[in-house]
Structure formats: C-alpha cells, structure tokens
Automatic annotation (TrEMBL):
Residues 6-358 form the FAD-binding domain. It comes from the Bacteria. GO terms for biological process: anthranilate metabolic process; kynurenine metabolic process; L-tryptophan catabolic process; pyridine nucleotide biosynthetic process; quinolinate biosynthetic process. Catalyzes the hydroxylation of L-kynurenine (L-Kyn) to form 3-hydroxy-L-kynurenine (L-3OHKyn). Required for synthesis of quinolinic acid. This is Kynurenine 3-monooxygenase. Coiled coil: none annotated. The gene is kmo. The keyword Oxidoreductase applies.
Length: 465
C-alpha cells in the first residue's frame, strides 16, 4: 500500500540514492535534490575516492533492496592486504582466516549510478539534479534550493526532510547556525591529507600488480594504498602529512622532489606509475576529518543521515558501509514503529544508531595507525598470524576485531569495538610477556587469549567503558 507522506531527500550520493530506493519500496513519495549533474549522463568524477572498499554491512543493505547480485558484478574481491616493504618485497596478509570473508573494491560512480537507476524505476520517486540546497528551515520543514540550470532559487516543503548531503551538510549547518536548540558539533581534521594517483593497465588491459588485494606501502608517518578497478587500473591514494616530516604535501613542490620521494619510499610502485608526476600535479590534495554531532533530528521534521551525521576518516573502509547500514537500521526502526509519528521514529533511530557510528569513527582513527605503521611491525605481524590461525582452526570460537567490524554485520560497531579492542590487547599482552608464541598449539593459544580477553573486558566493565 502506498503511504501518503512526502519525503524530501537532500543529496543523491551513495546514502541518499539508497534511502530513496528503500523508501520508495516502502511506498513513500520521495523527492530527491542533488547539487551535481546526473553522473550517468555527464563525465564527472563521482566525488572523492574513485573506488571504495565495500563489505558485509554495505552488502546487507544491498540485500535489503534486492540488489546484491547486480552490485556483485561491479565488485573485485580483495582477500587481504598486500604489504609492500621499502625494499620492494611483498607479502599477503589475509583479512580473515575464513575463506568466505573478504572485502571488495567497487567503483563509487558505478554503484551510485545503479542506485539512482533502481530508485528512479519507482514512479513515486523523482530525482532532480543541479539543485543545491542552500539552507533548511527545520521549524517549518522547508528547504531553499538554487537551481543551477536557470539560476533561480525556490523553496520546497515536505512532511519530513532527510539530509544525506555528505560531510558539508546544508541541514547540519542550518542546525548549527539556527541556534534554536542545543546542537553539539565537532569536526576534527587529521594533520594528514590525501591525494589520488593511478596505476594504469598494461597495453593489453591487464593489471600491473596482483589484482585481488588491497595494496599497502606502510611507512610509519605516511602510506600509499591501491585498490583495483574493473578496467585493469588501480586507484592509488597517498596519505601524507601537510606539514610534518621530511616529505610532506607542502614541500613536494617539483616533479624532481616527487619522483625522489617515490624512488626512496615506494620504489616498486614508481616502476608501474610512469604517470606519477602528471597525476600528482593534476589531482587535488584533500583533507580528512571526523564529524560527530547531536541531535541528528529536529522534532519529527528533519534528520541527518550518512556522512552528514557522521563523517569518518577512511582507514577502516567503512564510511560508505556505515552510511548504507544507516538505511538498514532506519528501515528496521520503521518496521518496529509502524504507525508512529516521525518524531518517535527519528528519536528511536538516533538512539539505536549513534553509539555505533561514534564507535566506527574511533575505530577508523585506530586503523590509521595500524595501516600506516603497525602492519609493518614484527609484533603486529605476529599478532595477525595468530589471529589468522585462530580464525582458521576455530572459526566458530574466534573472530578478530577486523572481522567483527567488517564481516559481522549482525552486531553493531560498538560491540565489535569493545570486544575487538579487548582481544587485541589480550594478544599483545600475551605476546609481549612471552606467554604465547606462534609455535604454540592453536588450541592453547585460543584458551589463553579467551581468558585474557575476559579479564580485560571485566576491567573495562568495572571502569564503565
Ligand atoms: P556523499 O557520498 O558525500 O554524498 C553526498 C551527496 O550530496 C553528493 O552527491 C553531493 O553532491 C550531494 N550534496 C552535497 N551538498 C549538497 C547540497 N547542499 N545540496 C544538494 N546536494 C548536495 N567508505 C567505505 O565504506 N569504504 C572505503 O573504502 C572508503 N574510502 C574512502 C576514501 C576516501 C579518500 C574518502 C574521503 C572516503 C572514503 N569512504 C569510504 C567514505 C565514503 O566516501 C563516505 O562515507 C560515503 O560517500 C558517504 O555517503 P553519503 O551519501 O553520506 O555522502
């Protein structure tokens, strides 16, 4: 049965287009306003980061809207991290000891296009492009837009407005500037920024390095990563400080310095990146930050979702997955609150969801240190070996933090964080006190790790963590 409510969605990115599709499937009338041109018709970059790591939480959302198979055809499985040492040696560190657990590289543009097309198949959805939201009157549930085509401004109203307009959200700004209620907001930038580069395919269209992995060149203060694309290329991202260290974005100013930096630090990558200098000076350097805010909603009128509510740094590969999971959670709140008003629904959603998005924001910062530094350290490699062995031999009894976050879509990020951090600490304690080693029987290690984890979890419970 079609329900009467008119919902206005601001932003047709990954979260907004999925939300439009799901709400249409539920029978709502949905109008979506997107500031950029239609990416299916115009050759524009889909926004930041050309490809993304897509995993089980995101896939749960695709299952919900019936798109699992279509999305699968856009995905390249990545079974582990391919670590590249400074000397040019490589080794593969699997993401999980369970073979069916892997992440995928997916094109942001292709995925967004699919979601838009599927949403538009519903007659109760209209998507308007080139319309930028300038502000939201959250008391009267109206939004002011600028039409980039005829340069006019217009106001739209709706029964409720959901803003999925990303990290620079117009609704969030209106909450902040409106000063009509107690709105808490924090934005913390990393001192590191990022720049996208590329490894192009060979002349015959093949991959120049191993296809089914997320490549990492960890160098302590900075790192390079590469994710495969379906056309044989890789999108490469350099994460580097703006100002600190021998090399930083501010002093990589000439082709000679950039080439020298890569020669010293990423020699094997440089060999397959003849286009490095061109990419480096053509592509922008962008900042990375974490945004937390509350409340996400104003009465039953407006709601923030996706990056607009909780932008995170990209180091767990979970920002998009979390934004997709928002839609799954919202859908389940709608199921649990049939016939409730929007205020009840928005409150219930924020109550269940915020603790988990706060947790993934913190986990993503942890992983920044793990990826750029820890993956190259002996004790962390030993810990990873132990985790792999435990997951392989005891798939039912042990799940690492990475797997809890990435592959266990049935528990929230907060639960994954608390358990995962305790396990990490337990293994590192046991290793540094020489109470376990990779030569021990896996069953003995499991027993010790479980016991030590329980001790840590208990201490945390007592400390109220
Ligand atoms: P967005 O994707 O930002 O979409 C917002 C949409 O709203 C856009 O279409 C925009 O044009 C539109 N819009 C903005 N303002 C307005 C306005 N005023 N009016 C109308 N429309 C507007 N996540 C992962 O899960 N895995 C990864 O591997 C990963 N890698 C990343 C790498 C980098 C370098 C970065 C920066 C992020 C990465 N992310 C990753 C995070 C992911 O990109 C975001 O979490 C995700 O895009 C959030 O989706 P969204 O729809 O909420 O916001």
């Amino acid at each position: 049965m079609k329900q009467k409510e008119n919902i206005l969605i601001i932003g047709a990115g990954l979260c907004g287009s999925l939300l439009a599709l799901r709400l249409a499937q539920r029978g709502y009338f949905v109008n979506v306003y997107e500031m950029r041109p239609d990416l299916r018709k115009t050759d524009i970059s889909a926004g930041r980061s050309i490809n993304l790591a897509f995993s089980d939480r995101g896939n749960k959302a695709m299952k919900l809207v019936g798109l699992e198979n279509k999305v699968k055809s856009l995905c390249i499985p990545m079974h582990g991290r391919m670590i590249h040492t400074k000397e040019g040696e490589t080794f593969l560190s699997n993401y999980s000891g369970r073979e069916h657990e892997y992440i995928n590289s997916v094109s942001r543009g292709e995925l967004n296009a699919l979601l838009l097309t599927e949403a538009e198949k519903h007659e109760n959805v209209n998507i308007y492009f080139n319309r930028k939201c300038k502000s939201v009157d959250f008391e009267n549930t109206t939004a002011l837009f600028k039409d980039y085509e005829d340069k006019t401004e217009f106001v739209e109203d709706a029964d409720c407005i959901i803003a999925t307009d990303g990290a620079g959200s117009a609704l969030r700004k209106s909450y902040y500037l409106g000063k009509k209620f107690l709105f808490s907001f924090s934005q913390n930038y990393l001192t590191h920024g990022y720049k996208e580069l590329s490894i192009l395919p060979t002349e015959t269209g093949d991959y120049k390095t191993y296809k089914n992995a997320l490549h990492i060149w960890p160098r302590g203060d900075f790192m390079l990563i590469a994710l495969p694309n379906l056309d044989g290329s890789f999108t490469v991202t350099l994460f580097l400080s703006y100002t600190e260290g021998k090399y930083n974005f501010n002093n990589l100013t000439t082709p000679e310095i950039v080439t020298k930096f890569f020669k010293n630090e990423f020699r094997d990558a440089l060999k397959i990146m003849p286009n490095l200098v061109e990419d480096f000076f053509k592509n922008p350097t962008a900042a990375l930050g974490t945004i937390k805010c509350s409340p996400w909603h104003y009465k039953g009128n407006t709601l923030l979702m996706g990056d607009a509510a909780h932008a995170i740094v990209p180091f767990y590969g979970q920002g998009m997955n979390a934004s997709f999971e928002d839609v799954v959670e919202f859908d389940s709140v709608l199921n649990q609150n049939k016939n409730a008003d929007w205020q009840t629904i928005f409150s219930a959603y924020e109550k269940t969801r915020k603790k988990d998005t706060d947790a993934i924001a913190d986990l993503a910062l942890d992983n920044f240190n793990e990826m750029r530094d820890h993956v190259g350290q002996a004790i962390f490699q030993e810990k990873r070996k132990i985790e792999m062995a435990l997951e392989k031999e005891f798939p039912e009894d042990y799940t690492s933090k990475y797997s809890l976050v990435t592959f266990n879509e049935n528990i929230g990020y907060k639960e994954a964080m608390l358990k995962g951090r305790a396990q990490d600490k337990a293994i590192l304690n046991l290793l540094s006190n020489k109470l376990i080693s990779t030569n021990d029987k896996t069953s003995t290690i499991l027993e010790k790790v479980k016991k030590e984890t329980e001790v840590i979890l208990n201490e945390n419970r007592i400390a109220g963590l």
